[in-house]
Design goal:
Blueprint: H1 3-45, E1 52-55, E2 66-69, E3 79-82, H2 84-92, E4 96-97, H3 103-106
Parallel strand pairs: 2-4
Antiparallel strand pairs: 1-2, 1-3
Length: 110
Amino acid sequence: MSEQSSRLEMLRFLLRVQEQQLHATRRWIADEERREAERHQGEQARPPQPDWVLELGIGVGAKPAEVHAGHCYAIGDRRRPITRDQAITALTDGVEACPHCRPDTDLGLL
């Protein structure tokens, strides 16, 4: 085998490797585009944020824990969206207002 033909074989081998890498890169791009589309679809399907949230107590029949504004970062996992009137009623019935988002102030009860 001559030096010229071995150089040609090495270049063809390099070409095959680069084609495989290009194919892998295109597959990674397609996967990332699919994940991005799924994230976007998930954001579009997300229900709107409620204006007011009632954080529920632990256990059956437990008293509600707190009333929160819908944007509050301190809302626990046990929650239920409520209307403005339900939030006012809960606060006037003795349910605590969240000390972080202060829904009593937003509702004009303070």
